[in-house]
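Lab notes, practical 5.
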Amino acid sequence: MMRHSIKIFIGIITLFSVPAFAEKAISITVKTNEKSAFAIGYFVGGEAKGSMGKSYSGKGPKNKKYIFGYRKNFIHGDNVYCGTQILTQDSKITLITDGAKCRIVIN
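Output from the prediction step:
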């Protein structure tokens, strides 16, 4: 009987704690139409996230500063910094390059 009560208690605690942890993560999609972009991504909380190509979707912490950018031409190309933003909810970010400058637009 005692084991059964402990299992029920653990189940109830798990039920209420999982949504609390899930709410701290947000979905981020970052994309660009820049022809010279080889890889794209962001830096948050000391961790770089991204992939080769012109778009990347991932998850990250809520209420943190995100640094967005892309790498030009090939794997050893120059990094292009596009901007920073503190994200509080699921976000779609577009990186727009105008000449030598890059900026972010939140959709």
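Observations recorded by the TA: The helical segments are 2-22. Residues 2-22 form the longest helix (21 residues).
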